[in-house]
Amino acid sequence: MIEAWTADEIRAAEKPLLDAGTPLMDRAARALARTVLADVARRRSAGGAPPRVRFAGSLASDGLSGTGRVRPARRSRAVGRAAQGVRVVLLVGPGNNGGDTLFAGAHLATAGARVTAFLVAGTVHGPGLAALEAAGAEVIARSELRVPAVVEHVSAADVVLDGLVGIGARGALRPPSGGIVRALVEARAAAEVAGSPWPWVVAVDTPSGIGVDDGSVPGPVLAADRTVTFGAYKPGLLLPPAAHLAGAVEVADVGLRREHGPQVAGTLRLQDGEVSAVLRAPGVRDHKYTRGVVGVVAGTDKYPGAGVLATAGAVRAGAGMVRALGPAGVTDRILDRHPEVVTAGGRVQSWVLGPGIPSDGSDAGQDRRVYGALAAVTGVLDAEVTGGVVPAVIDAGAMAMLEHRLPEIAVLTPHAGELADLMRGLGHEVGRADIEAEPVRWARAAQRATGATVLLKGAVTVVVGSGVTFTQADAPAWLATAGAGDVLSGILGALLAARAGDVLADPALTSRIAAAAAVLHGRAATLASAGGPTTASAVADAVPRVMAGLLAG
């Protein structure tokens, strides 16, 4: 499990270490420099193993006693080759983030790199600056800083370290940082169009300008190829849209202790072990009913494919039985593809409601079936009538039929446009662009307003339960294809049916199951795609192989 720590939680965890004299900045700077050299070596060797980098010497940091002196590093021949002649540009802001960048630059210069530092702040970390100057780096003071010169140096560099602001910054970058970054973003876009090289960008702790705690992007941000973050992930490295700007994230261990970290779960990301723990493999005493029965109300005569795909997701994700309800034009097509599906009513352990059903009420038959299933989910009708409360996936047109507050065992699965429609119906003036700019904010607002678990689909899928947010980024961009969301609904329905008893006993488990479904969906898309285009049907067909791999460990 990846767990993100907010800026306040990081500062609280750092305090006892700083009080004890732990040189956190020295640890951070060394880790940053090692990663930069490892990246350079890897890029130069076209995939060769990065060297092990060790630095000697003592740097003053964090206000501790010391001279800021850098002694020559003991380095292997491979490290020397990696550092020698590398052109490194430092973008240095105030405070400790700038100090980390300056000390890392001093290590790189001592190792043989040609380092140029642009001091974007009037006042920077004094010991770090002294160390950098002692290592022979070129330093451009703010009074001498010119944006065209920064762009020229960056364009000619091999590596850029973005150390403009730290985790305490809020809002868009202020001048001159904002202007510099905007000019660099434009230069990078022009270089990509022209096919010109661009340096490897390494963000120090987080890319400057992102919302550290909420993943927002309120202004220009220089997209990183690598982020070296200190101690723990920050929420903005996991949450969209900022997560797309972080590149490959490496956590540098600076000694933060877990017991000083978050006391309640905040922003999480499932990894293989947690996903496999969610999956329920059948035992020798299981039969089709104990494995979970999924009821699917999806598809109409106008959109029959949605019913086929939602059913395929449930079948391929291991449901013991799938009951598909709908007009003959839909169920006949489902049976053509999946003859094992049952098209008669009966008890179910979960519902999948809404894929392919218009939100305008134009299919009275399917609407009636959705309303009946929602009565079971919400418990508004007697259990003897509905068969009892069960979890549900509520997608597409079914989200327009909500009449009662939902329990946490109901999962809404909108994309950004559908979430905007839902929130407007609840009285919020919001459009799709607003959702895409602040997806976490609006997913959380929808969870609070409806009571349901919310799974907001996107390149980074956000799942919000009561008090917890999961983010999963397991899918290739090729998954943005028609019908993919229908398959996800079926997968999630199968997982909820398999764990229905557990979910009813502990509704908070719902969000973790939804996040696991997003992982399966994304991994299946990666397998089906193999680096190229794919289809929703191919994604569904790949699910069993992904599940088998996860269960095998």
- The helix tally amounts to 19
Arithmetic mean pLDDT: 90
Q: What is the strand content?
A: 5-15%
Count the beta strands.
17
Strand order of the largest sheet: 1-9-17-16-15-14-13-12-10-11
Globular, elongated, flat, extended or rod-shaped: what is the shape? Answer: elongated
Class from helix and strand fractions: alpha/beta
The biggest sheet, with number of strands, parallel, antiparallel or mixed sense and barrel status, is: 10 strands, mixed
Low-confidence stretches: 48-79
Describe the structure.
The protein is an alpha/beta fold and 553 residues long. Helix content is 42%, strand content 14%. The protein has 19 helices and 17 strands. Strand 2 (87-92), helix 4 (95-110) and strand 3 form a beta-alpha-beta unit. Helix 2 crosses helix 3 (77-83) and helix 13 (416-425) packs across helix 15. The longest helix is centred in the first third of the chain and has 21 residues, at 24-44. The radius of gyration is 27 Å and the shape is elongated.
Task: Please give a quick description of this structure.
The protein has helices at 7-19, 24-44, 77-83, 95-110, 126-134, 147-156, 177-194, 272-278, 304-316, 328-337, 364-378, 383-386, 416-425, 432-437, 439-450, 484-498, 500-505, 509-529, 536-552, and strands at residues 2-4, 87-92, 114-119, 138-140, 159-163, 200-204, 226-230, 248-252, 267-269, 293-297, 321-325, 350-353, 392-394, 410-412, 453-456, 461-465, 468-472. It has 553 residues and is an alpha/beta fold.
